[in-house]
Amino acid sequence: APALRGLRVVELGCGLGLPSLLAARLGARVLATDELSTLATHMQANARRNGCSVETRPLDFTRRAEVEAAAAAGPFDLVLLSDCVYSGAAGAALPLAVAKLLGGRRGAVELGAFPDVVRAGVPTFWEQAARLLASEEVSALDGGRLFLFRARDGASALADADDAGWAAGTEAHPGSGSLFDAVCSYEPPPPEPPSTPAGTRIN
């Protein structure tokens, strides 16, 4: 926990935002991002419920201009991502976005969780990441693996020059739509009052 206190952290494709919430609870200054602007609103509500504070920002990490704008809000010590590659476009652009956000800063790292199920775009991610990021597996998870990434020398400049990776475009996130919004904004029902045992006299 002390290792995160005071660090500047950004999460890409935050979804429900569990990594962001945990980092914030451990004392990090967190920017949670996702391509759906509604998720940012839900993220702030989740943070309040968990007694912590996070910044939020709509961000499609396949768009160069949006990533550059987010990088300007840094520098970041840690980039977080968890199971956010669902398309070839995302797989091609995500290593570029990570390289830009790490920005060649000494000691800055990215922590990424990937499921054992190989989703569309994940092989593309690893091909692209091999050019830009040094990686090592740090832990086996239940149903997945956790990797630590560091930007290679010159990675940010390579990301700038990779027009094809950025130009891959965007595809609809499978979580888009009213169902995903409903999950994010779910409020548990209030607890029912305790029942009175039969035969109990109430004055």
Descriptive account of the structure:
The chain has about 200 residues and is α/β, with parallel strands linked by helices. About 35% of the residues lie in helices and about 20% in strands. It has helices at about 20-25, 35-50, 65-70, 90-100, 120-130, 155-160, 165, 180-185; strands spanning about 10, 30-35, 55-60, 80, 110-115, 135-140, 145-150. It has a seven-stranded mixed beta sheet. α3 (about 65-70) packs parallel to α4. It is globular.
Largest sheet: 7 strands, mixed
Radius of gyration: 20 Å
- Whole-number mean pLDDT: 83
Give the uncertain stretches in residue-range form: 170-180
Order of helices and strands: EHEHEHEHEHEEHHH
Distance between the termini: 52 Å
Shape: globular
Strand order of the largest sheet: 3-2-1-4-5-7-6
Query: β content, as a range?
Result: 15-25%
The tally of strands reads: 7
Helix content: 25-40%
From the helix content, strand content and strand pairing, which structural class follows?
alpha/beta
Number of helices: 8
